[in-house]
Queue: 3 jobs
Job 1
Amino acid sequence: MSISHKDLHSKYTLGGLLISLGIIYGDIGTSPLYVMKAIIGDKIITTDLVLGGLSCIFWTLTLQTTLKYVIITLNADNHGEGGIFSLYSLVKKTKIKWLIVPAIIGGSLLLAEGIITPPISVSAAVEGLLIFNPDIPTIPIVIIIIFLLFVIQQFGAKIVSRFFSPIMLVWFSMLGVLGVLQIYKNIFILKAINPYYAYNLLTSDASGHGFLILGAVFLCTTGAESLYSDMGHCGRRNIRISWIFVKSMLLLNYFGQGAFLLLNEGSTLTHLGSSNPNPFYLIMASWFQPIGIVVATLAAIIASQALISGSFTLINEAMRLNFWPKFKVIYPTDVKGQLYIPSINWLLFFGCIGIILHFKESKNMEHAYGLSIILGMMMTTTLLNFYFIMKRVKLYYMVPLIALYFIIESSFLAANITKFYDGGYVTLLVAFCMISVMTIWYFAKKISKSYTKIVNLKDYIKVLLELSDDLAIPKYATHLIYMTNAGKADEIEEKVMYSILRKRPKRADIYWFIHVNILNEPYKTEYRVTEIAEKTIFRIDFNLGFREPTKINLMFKEVITNMVKNGEVDVTSRYESLNKNNIIGDFKFVLSEKYLSNDSDLTFFEKVIMNSYFFIKKLTLSEESAFNLDIGSVRVEKFPMVLHAPENIGLTRIYSKKQEI
């Protein structure tokens, strides 16, 4: 870990604590808008229900969010960064191949969360307007807010993010004050800290309905996975310290809602004299409700912004790790790590609109929310187990811990699985689509790599040098550049040599081979130059972190500039008239675009994967755009991909008899 990463995670500042409020806690911080409402539902308010629900919330936030994520999982940082793909990049060193499965599933489920969080958070906040007029059409208002939220993504969040932290500070302070005012009226509510009340509620009904309350309780910890993903923005220590404040304010508000509900024991939410029976708004004084609605809506927008930005980061990591097709990535500001992916932005937008139009109200969206998130948490737990093994954590510490979370998360899964037909299938369907794309892309790349023939570059040095001096062949370019996936400096794909020597011989003064190596750490920009033949054949290896942009055009120019300064290469044109005037020679990139050859003999699995791969590829970024190359200096050549080509068809020659003349 570099010094900067150590500083990031060991130091804490007032500014860092405030930033963490605006970036980290949006999702989990807006959960009071709907958790208690989901727990009570249309049931009669009873002491056992309220105290049991609050006890479940307290211990869920303590065991699941605080212990698992804030204390334990935040230690699993990859050079300062967190998130399921960062964790996978760490445990990948164990060489256990099937760990790709929980990584892909977990990443897909986190993307599904990015589609459900904006609708449920914004809807729950805006529905506070129904207090004043039950006929207000909230759906158009929610859609407009969501639309504006996605429109501003292209400009970056640098300007508006300055207001995130102060707004979230006001939000959490408001949660705490509202809670304290209600707890003061009924201090008896603090008994809910006793885990007995949680146990009593979960086992109170022989039919299992008490246990199913966990499905609603789980909504209080839905932002924990995002908390881990955003670790690199604020630092571990800032998150841990700020969480003390955040958790305190959340619990005060939950207990305040519980105290209010106990004062109305025997009633139902619909009988509390409000057109929007949400305990969150019912605990407010009538004069404060308009202010509360505005602050809640702003907090919901910030929570949505955090999930959208997190989705961009997640997709960018997936692209770099070859889990996702290449799409255009824009860096709207100079803030490191801030990016914008237009196609994903609008995919998320239409997904959010679909959720809003399908479920209409936040209470209906609650059913779709928990199932995908608990499955994602279980994937993180799986990878975390192998992280412990890799770090040689003592068995007496690791086994009980993993067993504890297996029990907790299995219980949450069992409670949430009952919501499948009530809406849980929607987010799982979204996640399944994501999983399918990632699986197809991963296996297609793996199949392609296994059938790529690699040759020894040393065997071709002599012919390349002779080609470079062969004046009988028209010069193709002064500098000819090929991208290569070959990992070693003395290796090259056979198709590259085929392109240079046989698919119209390409004479050049200098041949360049560029390899991009994606590292398991997030941020690094290094390169190595290997001179294969003096002043004529070079190979450049770029070692880039999986969060670094692949700007080959700019990076290659920087390398050339440094080499010229060091006298390692002469880039001036070899044409006599241009050379006299020190004119730089032309540079030409040649990229190969693969297509599936009709000569391939595929298995059923390979046929499904490869046909799906090439179909998806038509919708994605071109190779030159993916490498950020200047289109004017790029030539793309079609190259057939032949899988399982038959070596011998078995033709039989027929000899004709000689005819007498």
Job 2
Amino acid sequence: MAYDKIAERVILLKRFLPQLEQPSGWELRARVYGEVLGLRQGWPRSLEELAGIISDSQLVEVFRLSPYREYYSFRGRYYTVRGGELILEGSWGQVREAVWEAFRLNGIKTYAVLKALLELGEAPYASVEARASEILGSRLNAARLLAQLRDRWELVWESGSAREKGWTIPEEIRPVVEEFVKAVESKPIPRLSTRQAEDEFVQVLEMEAAYNSYLEGLVRERLDEALSFGRSFTVAKLVEYLVDLFGSVIFFDELLTLAQQYSIADTPVVTESGHKAMSTGFNLALFGEPGTGKTFATKDFILGNESLGVPPHGLPGLNRYCGGMTPAMFIAIGEAYAGRRFNFIVTEFNDWFKHRGMVEPLKLALEGGVIAYETKTYRVGPYRFSSFFSVNYNTRVLERGYEVTVSDPNFNAIEDRMLCRLHRLTKEKYRELAESQRRLMLGITTEKMAKMAPRIRDHLTLVHAVQTGHPLVRDFTPKRVVLTERDLEAVTRAREAILEAMGEVKALPFSMRLERRAVQLASALSLASYFNRDEPELGIDPEALRLAVRFYVEEAWIRARESFDVGEVLRRLNLG
């Protein structure tokens, strides 16, 4: 029998049958050991010994002898006492829900009070309040919260005499509370300026808990299967899957959103000499005409859409959907993500620029810079934003090029800091969208995704966990992506072909950041081939490089308002 189950039985027996340890409890011991266990001699010398030999059915019989069973409760991992009856099943699931509900309603104060009680064991109110205030960093009146934790969630007890009352956490639920405190402390707790940020921090921890729960299930139940899948999975196979689902034109949108999911681990990209050239993490923007599948690629495909029958392909718990959120709200809650890497999905990015003064703080956010924001009523920050964006916005697509509908003249500074992809509704794309919709309605696409999406999601999560050093996968060693001269030569050849095709121009319509984005895309996509080889470093996948160079050429063509023959450039580079 598991040691922790025996230990829980000891707690149960001490609470409901304390007479078994008292000198005057001979009559009860005779009934328990003689009548229930049928022992004529060799009685257990301690509750620990009794807990190791008694069966569950015998424990139920013994429990019925308790004079306290109507007065106390018990919510353990293996046993529950409810309504005076011993139930042979645990309650830790309900306890976890109670802890997180208390946290949602009271925020970081719940953490401070519970941590104080874990440290103090059993203590009078004044000690609990003083230690909780010290943990919180500000004065805390804990009386109301303690009463809620006792009466509503049964997470704490009042103990002791009427003259000297103390507060404590029931022993059987301490591991759940310790688990919660560790979850809060797993990363630095940010300093929060607003109530919105405090509320958001609760959601941040819940999302991280969802990620950890998914990863735990993966490691416990599906690790061998995930590794077997990973050893044969490549960028080419990923492309094959997406082309089969969506067609040879629009598949690239889903490829970009999945590449960004791999990139969130922010894996170092180094040269052959070991010099760090960059990291994989990038911000993504799909822009263009409405109705061209942008929202499906960034939101439904990544998060899943049950009504469409689309399972989630993206990282569990690490994508924050920002539907209906204002930019001011984003800046306020951004504090809660300091020191963390999430992905913010904004499907109506245009709306964020209806408010004045948003370009500068958003530009800082895209650069991982320090954000500070102040109005007449409140001040936010300063804090460093380290998460990423995946956004959609509508533009007027012209016969050549496009025209941004955002009125702010500095919006190009935002575009320049993202990996961008234009959506133009050509006849070919329209046919593919219509066919994709037909296959989705008939269930053809849904059936294929149901088989493949969980495997891709497991692979993506496992790669992310290894690359971010998650303790559940500490047996794996993180890898670096190695960028060679040969890889960079492919980008150089593309650059020269583009410049030659453009002819004489006074000013280039794109910056060097475009080349950087192409290299980041190739590096992030290469993580799809992560488990192909056992080498400690990961080279750029040839198919990933080919796709990234093609992206570079096509994006340069769009930025140049389609002023050169893109087909000819692609043919010259053998990318046609």
Job 3
Amino acid sequence: MRILLAALSFLYLFGLPAAAQETPIQALLQEQRDLIEQSSRRTIGPAIDALAESGLPAAQEVLERWQDKALWQRESDGRFFFGEEVDRDTLRLIEIGSGEALGEVPDDGYDQLRPNSGIRAMIGAALVRFQLNDPDPATRAEALDSIARDGEAAHLAALRDSIAGEADPALKARKERLERLLTISFDPDSAARVAAIQSFAGDLGVDARAALNPLVATTRVVVAGQPPEDENIARVLAPGSEALPAQEAYALLVEAGLAPPRLGRGDIRAALAAHVENGRVGGVPVAALDSDAARDRAYAALAEAGRVPAAATAAEVEAALAAHSFYDRYAAPDPAVTDAANAALEAIRLKVGLNQAADLTLDALSLASIYFLAAIGLAVTFGVMGVINMAHGEFIMMGAYTGYVVQQLVPDYTLSILIALPLAFAITFGAGVAMERLVIRWLYNRPLETLLATFGISIALQQLAKNIFGTQARPLTSPDWLDGALVINDVVSISYIRIAIFVLALVFLALFLFIMRRTRLGLEVRAVTQNPRMAASMGINPERINMFAFGLGSGIAGVAGVAIGLYAKVTSELGQDYIVQSFMTVVVGGVGNIWGTLLGAALIGFLQKGIEWLNPSNTLAAQTYMILFIILFIQFRPRGIIALRGRAAGD
């Protein structure tokens, strides 16, 4: 059966005239046959280039099959085929170019092309040309991703050739940027590298710094005499300076084998004690070993006799350091390249610093908006009523849990948030009115009792939340359109949730100002705040205004709770994380003044972020420093940034 199969295959393969079986790609392979058969990395390049540049439709498949070791050559005439091993002794052949199946044959008359890793890498670089010019934009993008991850010198020419014909503007921009990055790393032309480096001056991309930093990396070198003139030296180091302590310099000499090790005095004493013979050590009487110089002479005699390792004396150390030069050598040998890289990196560092400041400012504004939302309700109750409400944080917690419950009932996260915001306001408004009617109204002008009562209510509300929802943190999921962040560049970014909170804070600021400045209710609130007795004499009911003000402040706290819960886990202790900052915001800004609250939130937000930037590893220290600063601030301005005239100001 095997003989019959071989005969049929022979007749099939050789029964047709050679011209009928010849294809353009086969003809090209035959032209490069000698180089392919040699299969040497040093000589195979022209054959691979000929295939890649041929423009033949089958060239890409040939390179791919060759790389995958699926290219076979017939021994009798040197023709090439695609081959698939059916079993250990049988091969299924496919005609190159036409893709025609030629049947199964014994594999003993065929040689498999087995490119080594070096040749496979060269083939891979050639295949990049096809991928970079593929009609599918996704394939071209994948090729660019691959080059960006692991670029090679062989990719540079293919990338340059593909730029002119790129129709997609975004992909063309990526190709041009990647070409400049590869030029920096692999182009042998110094002028081209310098031009590419200069184009990245001030660029914030991480890929630019990744390409530039290796050029200015240094290696510390020590040589006898003066530094060589043909090396690209970053700086010459003087032994004993701050940059190169003498001990470190001598260690470099020892490591390079240019000087013997220097032993400590304790090591020398131990070695001498171990070699005492007849009252002498190295020919020196033990009684005479009363100085470092004498001990050095004795140790040197032992070293000369080969009884101990050679060790340098202090004088020899100084002489060795003086006889050698120490310097840092750039990794890139071309001074023009390293000078351009240093200049570009300096410009990048300056721009990165400015953008880090902008990023820190955005973080501070975001934090200030959160504190403003948390404190605006407290500013209302504290400013209008003079009530220190220690349960204000629990109203924030109630708002967050309201959002969580709504999301359990309404799976659509966008709709659930839209429902939760007014519902949280309504629930906490009602809770605030109830608290004012049942407790606060009986404790006016008794600040200590009010503080203790609201603190007790705070504990009770926390325990009630634990009994209902448990101690496990509950998620308040943001809608999909709030996922991710607004990325301005590789340094500056801000999450969409924080942007939404910032916008919400501005909305509440505008709404509060409208109510207070454009409505009769706001006029009455301002009247009661400034002079409650005069307001009562004008027909205004201060108790009703107090009730409304407390409810309004509590309702705003509930809305703040929904916003805060979008990025913080909802727990019964959520409010405690913001009550201290809320009080500080109100006190620093000025009790009862909305603009003062806004300024106080900004001051505390910027202060906290600034301290965290200076001491990023210790957030507790940042909180402590911030509180100390606030205490010091109040000593000089006890009424806050904007002092309020009226009852809350003590008038």
